[in-house]
Design goal:
Distance between the termini: 118 Å
Number of domains: 5
Strand content: 15-25%
Helix content: 40-55%
CATH class of the largest domain: Alpha Beta
C-alpha cells in the first residue's frame, strides 16, 4: 500500500497537470488555427513529457502524404516536411480504431516507426481539429517508456474536447447569412420556407446546400440540377473545400462503360441513395480523398427527378435513418422554390417582358402549386379563379413552364382590353379583304400559339358571339379566320382566367353553360393576399429590388414600423396593390430606408383607403363581386345604356342616326375606336391613380402602349 505522503504527491502532480491542461485548453480554444496554433499545442504537451521531437500533420489524400503543419525539435536533427502514408507509424495509427498508439521502445516497434533517428518511444494520437480529414499528433522521446497509457488517455481526451470546441466555434464563425439561415431552420418548416424564398436560383441553391449540410452535420456536398434535354447534371452549388481525387467538372455526364455515381442513380430511380461505406459501394465515384459515407436525395417534380442534393462525410456509417428522412423532407420542401427560381431565370431572358416571379407561401399557395404540378404536364384546360391582382397570369406562366410545351410559344390575350370589333380577328386571324383595313392576311393568336399555350385572361368579358366560336375551337381544335371558309387545325393548350362570377353570369344568360364546363376541367382558386400575409415581407424585399432597378434608386430596405404597416393592411387590390405601394414608396423616399411617412395615408390611418373593384370569393362561398355587368364590348359603344334610339350617333357625337350615317365606314370606325381608347384609358388611369405601370398590368399590355395611347390622345 502506498505511503500517504507518496499518494499526496501523486494527487498534487495530477492536479498540476489538470490545471496546466485547462490553461492550455483555454488558450488554444481562443486562438485562430494557424501554424502558431499547432506550435503552441505541441509545446504545451511537450512540457508535460520528456519530449525530444514532435509534429502535428494533416492527411492529404489517398496515395498522398501527411503534411507537417508544425514541428518541435529539442535535439539536433532535421524533421521532414511530410511523411508518406506508407510510413509504418502513420499506417498503424490510421489503420486502427483506437485514437491513441503508444510505442514503449524501439525494440518492440515495427522497423522505421520513429520519425527522429534518436527516439526510443513515442505517443501518436489521431484527431480532426481542422476538418474531416484525419490529423496526427506525434510526440517522441529519447527515453524508453516515456509515455504511459494514462498519458495517452490524457492527450486523446484533451484533443477530443478541443476538437468539439473548435468545431462549434467554426460553426459559429460562419457568415452572418448562414448563421441567420441556421437559426431560421431551427424554428421549423415555416421559417425554412422563408429561408428558401429566394428568387435568384444560384442564391437559393447555395442556401439549400447550407441547410442540408447543417442538418446532416456535414461540411461537404453539392446541389445538382438536371438538364431536361441532355439528361446531364449541372453542379450549381458545392462546398468541396478539401483535396480532391480529380477535378470536378461543372457538368456531369452519364458514363456508358461503368457506374456513373450515386447522383445519376438517384436521378434515374427518383429516390434517395445511401452509401454508408463508400469503399464498398459499387455506385460511388470517389471525389473527395477521404469520403467514407455519402447520402443523395432527389428533388422530385411531376414524378421525375429535377435535381439532386448530395452530402458527404468523412466518417463511415455517419448517416442515420433520421438523416435520410430529414433530407428527403428538405428536398420536397425546396422543389417548389427551385421551380419558381428556374421560371424566374428563364423569363428574365426576355427583355421585352417582365420576369415572372411567384412569391406566395403558406397552405393556400401550397394547394395552388400542387395543382400546377399535377395539371401542368397534361393538356387539360385550366381555369384560374380569383380576385383581381392575385397573380393569375403568373400562375399561367408557371403551368406553361412546367409542361412539355415550355419551349413552344406562350401567348396572352386580355379579352377585356380588346374592342369587340377586333377581338375575333385577334383570336382567330383574318384574310386579306375580310373587312376595311384588312390589307394582308393575319394569323390569329391561336395560330401563333400552335404547339404551345394560350392564356385567355378575363374570359368572363368575352362577348356571347365569340363564346360560341371559342367553344368550337375547344371542341374541334380548329380555327377559321375572319373572311375565310377554310379551317386549320391547331394544337394549343388553353388556360383561362377570370375575376368575374361566372356562375351568376350563367344565371343571367351572359355566359354559356357548355363553355363554362369546357373551361372548368381543372378549376384553380388563387387566394387573395390577405390569406397568406406571411408572404408580405418577402414580396416587399423583391418589389424593392425591382423598383430600385426600374427607377435607378438605391433604397436599402424598409424600417420596422413601415413594414409593420405594410403587413397589417388587408390589400383588396392584392399583390398588384402591394407592388404599387412599394414602387411609390421607393420614389418618394428621401433617405436610404423606406419610412412609415413614405407610405400612403390610408396605411398610416390618416385617410380612408381608395375604393377597389369587386372581388370573387371561392366557389361555394358568398361572392363580394359587384353586380354582373355586360361584357366590355357592349359598354364600349359609349352610352350609359343601350336603350337610346341612336347609340351609334352618341358614340361619334352626332345629333342623329342619319347624320352619323353620313360618315363613311372607315372614318366612323376610326372615330369609334378613338373614343373607345380614350374612355378606356381614362378608366384605367382613374382606377390606378394615374400609375402607368399598374394601368398596363391591369390592361394586360406593355406600359409602352399606354404611353403611345396618351401621346395619340394629346395629338388629337
Amino acid at each position: 500500500m502506498a505511503r500517504p505522503d507518496k499518494r499526496l504527491s501523486e494527487l498534487e502532480q495530477r492536479y498540476d497537470r489538470l490545471r496546466r491542461s485547462v490553461l492550455l485548453f483555454r488558450e488554444l480554444a481562443s486562438t485562430t488555427r494557424s501554424e502558431a496554433f499547432y506550435a503552441r499545442l505541441l509545446s504545451g504537451l511537450a512540457n508535460e513529457f520528456e519530449v525530444s521531437a514532435g509534429f502535428f500533420g494533416k492527411v492529404q489524400g489517398v496515395g498522398g502524404c501527411v503534411a507537417i503543419l508544425a514541428s518541435l525539435e529539442r535535439v539536433s536533427g532535421q524533421l521532414p516536411s511530410e511523411l508518406p502514408l506508407a510510413h509504418p507509424l502513420v499506417r498503424q495509427v490510421l489503420g486502427q480504431e483506437e485514437r491513441c498508439l503508444i510505442l514503449t521502445s524501439r525494440e518492440e516497434a515495427p522497423a522505421g516507426s520513429f520519425v527522429h533517428s534518436g527516439s526510443e518511444s513515442s505517443l501518436a494520437v489521431k484527431c480532426r481539429l481542422e476538418s474531416d480529414e484525419p490529423e496526427l499528433l506525434i510526440l517522441e522521446s529519447r527515453s524508453r517508456e516515456a509515455f504511459s497509457e494514462e498519458d495517452g488517455v490524457f492527450v486523446a481526451e484533451l484533443l477530443e474536447t478541443l476538437e468539439k470546441t473548435l468545431f462549434n466555434r467554426y460553426s459559429r464563425s460562419r457568415s452572418d447569412r448562414e448563421i441567420g439561415l441556421l437559426l431560421d431552420v431551427a424554428r421549423g418548416e415555416a421559417d425554412l420556407q422563408r429561408a428558401l424564398d429566394e428568387s435568384e436560383l444560384s442564391s437559393l441553391l447555395q442556401k439549400l446546400l447550407e441547410v442540408a449540410l447543417s442538418r446532416t452535420h456535414c461540411r461537404h456536398g453539392a446541389v445538382l440540377l438536371v438538364d431536361e434535354d441532355s439528361q446531364d447534371l449541372h453542379m450549381e452549388a458545392e462546398t468541396f473545400s478539401l483535396d480532391l481525387n480529380q477535378r470536378i467538372p461543372r457538368v456531369l455526364k452519364r458514363r456508358a462503360d461503368r457506374p456513373s455515381g450515386v447522383v445519376f442513380r438517384v436521378m434515374s430511380e427518383n429516390r434517395h441513395y445511401l452509401a454508408n461505406d463508400t469503399s464498398q459501394d459499387p455506385y460511388y465515384t470517389q471525389l473527395l480523398s477521404d469520403t467514407r459515407a455519402a447520402l443523395a436525395v432527389p428533388m422530385s417534380f411531376q414524378d421525375r427527378c429535377i435535381g439532386v442534393i448530395l452530402v458527404e462525410s468523412q466518417q463511415e456509417a455517419h448517416f442515420t435513418p433520421d438523416h435520410v428522412a430529414m433530407l428527403d423532407a428538405l428536398a420536397q420542401t425546396a422543389t417548389s422554390f427551385v421551380r419558381r427560381a428556374q421560371l424566374y431565370r428563364s423569363t428574365q431572358m426576355d427583355q421585352e417582358k417582365e420576369a415572372v416571379l411567384i412569391k406566395g407561401r403558406g397552405p393556400a399557395w401550397d394547394d395552388v402549386e400542387r395543382r400546377i404540378e399535377r395539371a401542368a404536364d397534361t393538356n387539360a384546360t385550366v381555369c384560374l379563379r380569383g380576385e383581381s391582382g392575385t397573380g393569375k397570369e403568373l400562375v399561367a406562366h408557371a403551368i406553361h413552364f412546367n409542361s412539355n410545351r415550355q419551349k413552344a410559344p406562350f401567348v396572352t390575350v386580355n379579352c377585356a382590353a380588346i374592342p369587340f370589333e377586333l377581338l375575333e380577328s385577334e383570336l382567330f386571324g383574318h384574310v386579306k379583304g375580310a373587312f376595311t383595313g384588312a390589307v394582308v392576311d393575319r394569323a390569329g393568336q391561336f395560330e401563333v400559339a400552335d404547339g404551345g399555350t394560350i392564356f385567355l385572361d378575363e374570359i368572363g368579358d368575352l362577348p356571347p358571339a365569340l363564346q360560341v366560336k371559342l367553344l368550337r375551337v375547344l371542341q374541334s381544335a380548329e380555327v377559321r379566320k375572319v373572311g375565310s371558309d377554310q379551317v386549320r387545325r391547331v394544337d394549343v393548350r388553353v388556360i383561362a382566367a377570370t375575376s368575374r362570377d361566372l356562375e351568376a353570369m350563367m344565371g343571367q344568360g351572359l355566359f354559356r353553360e357548355d363553355l363554362y364546363y369546357r373551361l372548368m376541367v381543372v378549376p384553380t382558386h388563387l387566394p387573395p393576399l390577405r390569406e397568406y400575409p406571411e408572404s408580405i415581407p418577402g414580396m416587399v424585399r423583391q418589389f424593392l429590388r425591382d423598383a430600385n432597378v426600374a427607377y435607378g434608386r438605391s433604397v436599402a430596405g424598409v424600417e420596422d414600423d413601415a413594414l409593420q404597416a405594410l403587413c397589417g393592411h388587408s390589400y383588396p387590390g392584392n399583390v398588384r396593390e402591394l407592388r404599387n405601394i412599394v414602387e411609390q414608396a421607393v420614389l418618394l423616399s428621401e433617405g436610404s430606408w423606406i419610412r412609415r411617412s413614405d407610405l400612403p395615408g390610408y396605411l398610416r390611418g390618416e385617410e380612408s383607403p381608395p375604393p377597389m373593384p369587386g372581388s370573387l370569393a371561392p366557389p361555394g362561398q358568398p361572392n363580394s363581386v359587384a353586380p354582373v355587368q355586360p361584357p366590355l364590348a357592349v359598354e364600349a359603344l359609349g352610352a350609359a345604356t343601350v336603350s337610346p334610339p341612336s347609340p351609334l350617333a352618341s358614340v361619334v357625337g352626332a345629333e342623329s342616326l342619319e347624320s352619323a350615317l353620313e360618315w363613311d365606314y372607315k372614318t366612323l370606325k376610326a372615330e369609334m375606336l378613338r373614343r373607345f381608347e380614350s374612355q378606356y384609358l381614362d378608366s384605367l388611369l382613374e382606377a390606378t391613380g394615374g400609375n402607368v405601370t399598374r394601368a398596363a398590368e391591369l390592361a394586360g399590355i406593355h406600359r409602352v402602349n399606354i404611353h403611345r395611347m396618351l401621346k395619340r390622345r394629346s395629338e388629337h
